[in-house]
């Protein structure tokens, strides 16, 4: 699949209002228009890690493969590209909490007041991964998370989820909730962002993807929709087969 | 088309004023107190769409010139035709104005380039041109000096135009055909004369002159392909009714197709203001122009061709969002690709352009919505665009030349140079 | 030094639904109108075309079409004795930004309120007695009646091509429509949308239980439509990327698809985008607006003077503007004085999730629109006798599932692990055969301790105090929620679900889970300047050449989506301006 890539980063970018196609001043007389105008998504390029070190990446790949384990029918988180997705997201605006309100003072609040921490996702991952691997080395005789058995990995993650593990430099539960959310979102997002490789997640559930016209199906009740999924940049069916 | 020998051409050019004097009553001079003449001139100026070329695109003062006109040979800048004495036509005599509009000759005797469509305006009468002059004399004078000739060497040598005129230009007013209806004749006059449709829609030879044997069969212009507007049923207007065509010219939209690009400007400035009878006359005439389909028995590309299969998938997955699963579109909103003749132009430039860059259709008072086609150039590669266009051009009963990946690739680079 | 711009007859703050309607009406009156919009121009083909609009991550999860919290946000607390903290990322609601406002990315659910909603205080007091209402409930009558506003509901519905089945045509109850609706003068301009399997089955079950299901009134076109302005829309294609997203194929009603193409062609209309109005300026008397000050994207200040000012932003921003411009007395909840910030409300939303046998039920949840669905109004407003129930208010119940977008809509039954092989399996097994978020659209009435004011600590990017929201649920609404969730669960049981999970709203109100963006009140309309900020024509009591549009005017919220009423009020107000105010500028109501 050929993408027009202008940048390495994969982001569902927080475009700041005002980066509109160059047109200053007053609107009057005509609806504004320019050729090629628009803000197509910026795709994740395959290639080296942009945010994670190779050690961090190994840990993250191991985590995503337990959050979404592989099975005979559907790839797991690692093969689906969830770690790539997270890497590209953290390297972009999402990692920096760009667009969120980051003014001070930061003070803890009630649960209903929502997140109030100055720690960005990028910082949380750095600290969380380091703390996790340290915890594993301490508890499992020098092994990092990625080296543990599947059973042990699951046990560690369960403990994190249940707030049974205390990290020094990071909140283990907050870290786990973050990576859980990111993994599952990357699994189901459009493949353009690095996860859901070959639309495996969509095929798993029967979601036809980025289609736009179901007029011939709205009244076909209780019937399985037969067409394969399509991403924003299409599917292999969009490319003429070489004879 | 007859090519008068040099002597004959010069003889013609100088013979006319004598002929007029010989023929009879003194002609009416342009008169700013003659309301009827001015109104007549204003309508003729609308028919001839003077304002489009003679006004800068981003809101320059009307008729003050300075707009770059693309020709196959380079850029020409339109002249200031406001009544300014120094930089406009304020000091021109009526004869000089008529020579310019109907014979392509400037007051200093040098030739105009046919970017000024005098080969079409020659069909108007002397009185018509007088009326236009009367109208132009009433608009605000603007001091704006324009260097019109900015063509590269050797095209900037106006003397060459004398030869061109000898080869390709026949002066002469429109002569009605007594065997045809008044409506047809009116339409013929409008199309061949002030409407100068052939300036864009008739293919040109290598020297930029009309190939009259292929009149109105379509021609590249400004990075688009101005479509075939003859009676041809598959690639021209043959399958559209007179009402459809009139609606398209008046409002920019009809039940099958819509207008964009340079024609959008034409509709906005000119044909949306034409009288209803004139629009019908134009439609009537166009539907009688022979099509000259050079591939009458073309078979469509086979449905199992890999390009058609890929194109079908792309169409269903994305184009159908607006153009419908059956490609019948939505009347006056999304073109019916199954029926729109311009989609099947032998030259696919417009179709490729619209897919690559997107396009806004025209807004008029009757049809203000002006829906726009998005740009697909970032999403589809050359093979994919070639496939989907080949599919659209060879489905639903149509058969047209497939689009190749190279066609798309070349146009991408050509468009990258354009700013419009 | 602010740049002074040429004077205009009218300046409109915000170019969303109400800004566009007022601009259209007042330019038709011959006035010279300028609109100033904080966010960017938005257009279908360039901003949300149907080749990249369908991106769940970008638009639903990262909220790209919405206001950025770092451009403006609010602080929030539940109770007056707490410290309010900034809403750092949107959760409970998503404020709009840009030309078209919320009209670009709304669901297009286009409801009318009930006749009794407009005279709520009188109606409930008459029926149940004053003591039936909680002591701190501050509901009020609106100052208008159903008869006043009905023609303008009609106007908004025909502008936007609302698709529905009339239930009460001039007093005659019609089969298939909502029998509880107020009498309407005309049918809907378009037939109802088609429904999916889940919606249809739910309606069948509801009918068998004795309720009166009807199709949700939808601003997603059931067929191609030309509105009275000559603007065209195409048919909705049930793409399932509706709410949160712009509509790529001109089939969702928005200012872009209904008004703006005609508006921009008028020589007496112009607009600035990416310019934020920071203040409405007043003259020395404080009783007359002279115009506005705004800041462009480079930070330059300009001043736009005008004879008439229309404040047409999203509700809370209108209140913020009034507070910063010192128009009207700020509300003091302790002393119970003042009006700006009073009677702030949201919506009390509950839901029911249900799971079905995937061998028997395939709902294709991805085939949907934003306003599809079948609803019953049997529990809305005062449509039932609340005497034995111990609460007032209610909402519509609807199977209005709008999408099968996988990040958002892959529910698993309660008890399923949140991750791992069992989670994956449960997602796989339930995706096509669930009802997620079956909707109970509960009203929220107004209370003394639910209000808006200015925060003492946190400032916006211009250094002005942020708006502070003090809001929590009251027992009345939570009782209603529990009651209606049970009713909904019964319907879903009759449908054949094997697992039913009612999720009635429980307190405290939190800003992290989405509960509609129906934020209302804060500068309400009414008949008494002591308890309202605006008169019945949305004219400011304090500054007669200022009119304030939007749901800011609602004295309390009803059990319906607000946009239909917001549009109708805009037309009602525009009519008063055109027919009365312009002839005799000054207060339209003497109180």
Task: List the SSEs and their pairings.
The complex is a heterotrimer of chains A (243), B (420) and C (591).
Chain A: E1 26-27, H1 54-67, H2 82-91, H3 121-139, H4 150-161, H5 172-188, H6 200-205
Helix pairs in contact in A: 2-5, 3-5
Chain B: H1 6-23, H2 35-48, H3 50-54, E1 68-71, E2 74-77, H4 94-103, H5 118-121, H6 126-136, H7 159-168, H8 182-192, H9 198-201, E3 219-221, E4 224-226, H10 242-251, H11 262-269, H12 276-286, H13 306-323, H14 349-357, E5 359-360, E6 372-373, H15 382-393, H16 405-416
Antiparallel strand pairs in B: 1-2, 3-4, 5-6
Helix pairs in contact in B: 2-6, 4-6, 8-12, 10-12, 13-15, 14-16, 15-16
Chain C: E1 3-4, E2 8-13, H1 17-28, E3 33-36, H2 44-47, H3 56-61, E4 74-77, E5 85-86, H4 115-118, H5 120-128, H6 146-160, E6 168-169, E7 172-173, H7 197-208, E8 214-215, E9 225-226, E10 232-233, H8 255-258, H9 260-263, E11 269-272, E12 275-282, E13 289-296, E14 301-311, H10 315-325, E15 342-345, E16 348-355, E17 374-376, E18 395-399, H11 421-430, E19 434-442, E20 451-459, E21 465-470, H12 475-495, E22 499-503, E23 520-522, E24 546-548, H13 563-581
Helix pairs in contact in C: 1-13, 6-13, 7-12
Provide keyphrases for this structure.
heterotrimer, A: 243 residues, mainly alpha, 6 helices, 32% helix, disordered N terminus, B: 420 residues, Cytochrome Bc1 Complex, Chain D, domain 2, two-stranded antiparallel sheet, 16 helices
General description of the model:
The complex is a heterotrimer of chains A (243), B (420) and C (591). Chain A has 243 residues and is mainly alpha-helical. Chain A has a domain at 54-98 and 119-204. Chain A is built from 6 helices and 1 strand. Chain A has helices at residues 54-67, 82-91, 121-139, 150-161, 172-188, 200-205, and one strand at residues 26-27. The longest helix of chain A is centred in the middle third of the chain and has 19 residues, at 121-139. Mean pLDDT of chain A is 89; it is low at 1-23. Chain B is mainly alpha-helical and 420 residues long. Chain B folds into 3 domains: 6-168; 182-286, Cytochrome Bc1 Complex, Chain D, domain 2; 306-416, Cytochrome c-like domain (Cytochrome Bc1 Complex, Chain D, domain 2). In chain B, the strands form 3 sheets. A two-stranded antiparallel ribbon of chain B has the order 1-2. A two-stranded antiparallel ribbon of chain B has the order 3-4. In chain B, strands 5-6 form a two-stranded antiparallel ribbon. The model of chain B is unreliable at 1-27 (pLDDT under 50). Chain C is of the alpha/beta class and 591 residues long. Chain C has one domain (3-581): FAD/NAD(P)-binding domain, CATH 3.50.50. Chain C has 13 helices and 24 strands. Chain C has helices spanning 17-28, 44-47, 56-61, 115-118, 120-128, 146-160, 197-208, 255-258, 260-263, 315-325, 421-430, 475-495, 563-581, and strands at residues 3-4, 8-13, 33-36, 74-77, 85-86, 168-169, 172-173, 214-215, 225-226, 232-233, 269-272, 275-282, 289-296, 301-311, 342-345, 348-355, 374-376, 395-399, 434-442, 451-459, 465-470, 499-503, 520-522, 546-548. In chain C, strands 1, 2, 3, 11, 12, 13, 14 and 24 form an 8-stranded mixed β-sheet that branches. Chain C has a 6-stranded antiparallel β-sheet with strand order 8-17-18-19-16-22, with helices on one face. In chain C, strand 2 (8-13), helix 1 (17-28) and strand 3 form a beta-alpha-beta unit. The model of chain C has no long low-confidence stretch (mean pLDDT 97). At the A-C interface, strand 1, helix 4, helix 5 and helix 6 of A face helix 2, helix 3, strand 5, strand 11 and helix 11 of C. Strand 1 (26-27) of chain A pairs antiparallel with strand 11 of chain C.
């Amino acid at each position: 699949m050929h993408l027009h890539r202008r940048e390495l980063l994969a982001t569902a970018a927080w475009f700041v209002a005002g980066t509109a196609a160059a047109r200053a001043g007053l609107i009057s007389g005509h609806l504004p228009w320019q050729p090629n105008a628009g803000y197509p998504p910026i795709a994740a390029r395959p290639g080296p890690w942009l945010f994670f070190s190779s050690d961090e990446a190994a840990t993250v790949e191991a985590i995503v493969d337990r959050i979404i384990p592989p099975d005979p029918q559907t790839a797991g988180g690692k093969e689906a590209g969830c770690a790539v997705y997270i890497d590209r997201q953290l390297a972009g605006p999402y990692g920096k909490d760009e667009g969120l309100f980051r003014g001070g003072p930061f003070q803890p609040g009630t649960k209903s007041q929502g997140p109030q921490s100055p720690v960005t996702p990028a910082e949380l991952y750095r600290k969380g991964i380091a703390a996790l691997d340290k915890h594993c080395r301490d508890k499992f005789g020098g092994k990092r998370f990625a080296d543990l058995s599947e059973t042990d990995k699951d046990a560690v993650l369960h403990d994190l989820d249940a707030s049974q593990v205390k990290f020094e430099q990071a909140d283990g539960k907050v870290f786990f909730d973050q990576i859980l959310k990111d993994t599952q979102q990357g699994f189901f997002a459009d493949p353009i962002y690095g996860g859901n490789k070959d639309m495996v997640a969509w095929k798993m559930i029967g979601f036809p993807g980025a289609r736009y016209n179901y007029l011939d199906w709205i009244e076909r009740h209780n019937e399985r929709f037969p067409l394969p999924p399509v991403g924003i940049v299409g599917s292999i069916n969009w490319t003429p087969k070489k004879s | 088309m007859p090519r008068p020998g040099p002597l004959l051409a010069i003889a013609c050019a100088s013979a006319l004023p004598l002929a007029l004097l010989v023929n009879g009553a003194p002609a009416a001079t342009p008169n700013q107190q003659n309301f009827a003449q001015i109104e007549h001139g204003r309508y003729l100026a609308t028919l001839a769409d003077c304002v489009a070329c003679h006004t800068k695109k981003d809101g320059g003062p009307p008729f003050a010139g300075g707009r770059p006109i693309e020709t196959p040979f380079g850029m020409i800048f339109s002249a200031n035709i406001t009544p300014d004495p120094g930089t406009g036509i304020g000091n021109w005599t009526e004869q000089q104005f008529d020579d310019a509009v109907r014979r392509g000759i400037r007051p200093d005797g040098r030739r105009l380039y046919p970017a000024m469509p005098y080969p079409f305006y020659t069909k108007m009468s002397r009185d018509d041109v007088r009326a236009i002059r009367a109208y132009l004399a009433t608009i605000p004078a603007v001091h704006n000096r324009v260097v019109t000739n900015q063509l590269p060497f050797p095209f900037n040598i106006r003397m060459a135009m004398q030869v061109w005129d000898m080869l390709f230009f026949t002066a002469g007013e429109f002569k009605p055909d007594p065997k045809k209806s008044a409506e047809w004749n009116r339409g013929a006059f409008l199309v061949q004369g002030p409407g100068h449709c052939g300036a864009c829609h008739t293919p040109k030879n290598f020297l930029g002159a009309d190939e009259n044997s292929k009149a109105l069969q379509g021609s590249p212009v400004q990075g688009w392909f101005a479509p075939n507007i003859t009676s041809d049923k598959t690639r021209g207007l043959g399958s559209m009714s007179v009402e459809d065509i009139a609606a398209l010219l008046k409002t920019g939209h009809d039940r099958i197709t819509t207008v964009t690009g340079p024609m959008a400007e034409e509709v906005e400035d000119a044909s949306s203001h034409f009288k209803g009878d004139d629009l019908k006359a134009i439609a009537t005439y166009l539907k009688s122009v022979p099509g000259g389909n050079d591939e009458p028995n073309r078979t469509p590309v086979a449905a199992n061709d890999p390009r058609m299969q890929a194109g079908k998938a792309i169409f269903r997955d994305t184009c159908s969002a607006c153009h419908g699963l059956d490609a019948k579109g939505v009347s006056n909103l999304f073109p019916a690709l199954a029926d729109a003749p311009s989609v099947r132009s032998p030259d696919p430039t417009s179709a490729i352009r619209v897919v690559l860059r997107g396009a806004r259709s025209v807004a008029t008072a009757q049809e203000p919505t002006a829906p726009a086609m998005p740009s697909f150039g970032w999403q589809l590669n050359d093979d994919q665009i070639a496939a989907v266009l080949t599919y659209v051009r060879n489905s639903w009963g149509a058969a047209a030349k497939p689009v190749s990946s190279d066609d798309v690739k070349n146009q991408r680079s050509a468009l990258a140079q354009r700013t419009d | 030094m602010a740049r002074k711009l040429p004077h205009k007859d009218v300046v409109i703050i915000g170019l969303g639904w109400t800004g566009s309607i007022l601009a259209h009406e007042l330019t038709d009156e011959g006035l010279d109108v300028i609109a100033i919009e904080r966010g960017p121009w938005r257009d279908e083909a360039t901003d949300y075309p149907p080749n990249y609009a369908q991106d769940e991550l970008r638009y639903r999860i990262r909220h790209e079409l919405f206001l950025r919290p770092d451009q403006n946000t609010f602080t929030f607390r539940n109770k007056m004795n707490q410290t309010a903290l900034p809403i750092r990322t949107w959760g409970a609601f998503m404020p709009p930004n840009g030309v078209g406002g919320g009209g670009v990315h709304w669901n297009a659910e286009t409801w009318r309120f009930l006749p009794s909603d407009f005279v709520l205080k009188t109606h409930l007091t008459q029926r149940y007695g004053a003591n039936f209402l909680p002591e701190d409930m501050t509901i009020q009558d609106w100052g208008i009646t159903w008869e006043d506003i009905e023609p303008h509901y009609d106007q908004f519905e025909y502008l936007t091509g609302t698709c529905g089945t009339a239930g009460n045509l001039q007093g005659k109850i019609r089969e298939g429509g909502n029998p509880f609706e107020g009498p309407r003068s005309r049918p809907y301009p378009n037939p109802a949308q088609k429904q999916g399997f889940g919606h249809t089955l739910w309606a069948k079950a509801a009918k068998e239980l004795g309720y009166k299901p009807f199709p949700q009134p939808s601003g997603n076109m059931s067929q191609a439509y030309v509105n009275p302005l000559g603007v065209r829309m195409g048919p909705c294609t049930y793409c399932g990327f509706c709410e949160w997203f712009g509509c790529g194929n001109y089939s969702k009603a928005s200012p872009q698809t209904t008004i703006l193409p005609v508006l921009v062609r008028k020589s007496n209309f112009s607009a600035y985008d990416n310019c934020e109005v920071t203040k409405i300026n007043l003259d020395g008397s404080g009783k007359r607006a002279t115009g506005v000050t705004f800041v462009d994207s480079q930070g330059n200040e300009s001043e736009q003077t005008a004879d008439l000012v229309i404040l047409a932003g999203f509700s809370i921003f209108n209140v913020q503007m009034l507070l910063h411009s010192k128009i009207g007395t700020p509300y003091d909840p302790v002393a119970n004085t003042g009006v700006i910030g009073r009677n702030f409300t949201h919506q009390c939303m509950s839901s029911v999730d249900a799971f079905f046998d995937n061998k028997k039920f395939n709902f294709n949840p991805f085939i949907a629109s934003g306003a599809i669905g079948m609803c019953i109004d049997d529990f809305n407003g005062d449509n039932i006798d609340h005497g034995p129930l111990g609460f007032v208010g209610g909402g519509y119940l609807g199977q209005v599932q709008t999408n099968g977008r996988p990040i958002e809509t892959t529910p698993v039954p309660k008890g399923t692990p949140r991750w791992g092989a069992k989670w994956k399996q449960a997602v796989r097994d339930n995706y096509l055969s669930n009802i997620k978020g079956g909707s109970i659209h509960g009203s929220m009435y107004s209370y003394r301790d639910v209000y808006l004011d200015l925060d003492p600590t946190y400032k916006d990017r211009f250094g002005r105090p942020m708006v502070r929201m003090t809001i929590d649920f009251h027992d009345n609404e939570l009782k209603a929620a529990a009651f209606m969730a049970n009713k909904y669960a019964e319907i879903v049981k009759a449908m054949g679900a094997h697992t039913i999970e009612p999720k009635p709203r429980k307190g405290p109100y939190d800003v992290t889970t989405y509960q509609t963006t129906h934020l209302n009140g804060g500068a309400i309309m009414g008949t008494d300047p002591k308890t309202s900020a605006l008169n019945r024509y949305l004219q400011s009591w304090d500054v007669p050449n200022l009119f304030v549009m939007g749901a800011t005017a609602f004295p309390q919220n009803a059990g319906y989506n607000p946009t239909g009423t917001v549009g109708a009020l805009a037309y009602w107000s525009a009519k008063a301006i055109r027919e009365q105010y312009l002839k005799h500028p000054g207060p339209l109501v003497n109180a």
